[in-house]
Amino acid sequence: MGIRNVMGYAIGFILFIVLIPALMWWVSGQVAFAVGKMICFALFAAAGIALSIWSIVHMKIAGKGNPLDAFNHEIAPRTSNLMTDGPYRICRNPMLLGVFIYYIGVLIYLHTWQALVIFAIYVLIMMGQVHKEEKRLEQDFGEEYRAYKKKTKKLIPFVW
Asked: Is 70 exceeded by the pLDDT of residue 141?
C-alpha cells in the first residue's frame, strides 16, 4: 500500500471518526456518562463503522481505488471500476450512510441541539459533495452509472 493510500485512510479516519464527533461533543458541553445512552451509541457506532469499513474494503478490491476524492481534489487514486454490488447494492453511498449511522449514535448520546447543528451542517456539506461525485461518476461511467442510479437509492435504502 502506497503512502498516498495510507495518507488517504489516515485523513479519513481522523476527520470522520475522530474530529466531527469530537466537535459535536465539544459544542454540546457533555461531560456526564449515561450507561443506556452509551450502549445505544456503541450499537450505532459499531453498525455505522462496520458499514463504512465494508464499503472502503469493497472499493479497494472491486473498485480498484480509494474513497477519498473530496471536493474535486484527488487525495488517493480514484476508483477505476463502477461498484454496484456488495455494500453498493444497498445504496449508492454506503460509506456515507455508515458515517451518518455512527453520528446518529453520537447524537443519541449527546442529545443536544448544538451537536444536531454540527450534524446538519455536515449533512449539507456532504450532500453537496455527493452531488458533485455523481456528476463525475456519470462522466466516468456513462450509461452504466445512469442505469445503476435508476435502480439504487442515493443514501437511504428503499427511501431516498
From this structure: yes
Asked whether residue 106 is assigned to any structural domain, the reply reads yes
Identify whether 48 is part of a domain: yes
Residue 55 lies in a domain: yes
Q: Domain range spanning residue 88?
A: 3-151
Q: Using the Cα atoms of residue 114, residue 27, residue 102 and residue 149 in order, give the sign of their dihedral.
A: positive
Per-residue pLDDT band for 23 (boundaries 50, 70, 90) equals confident
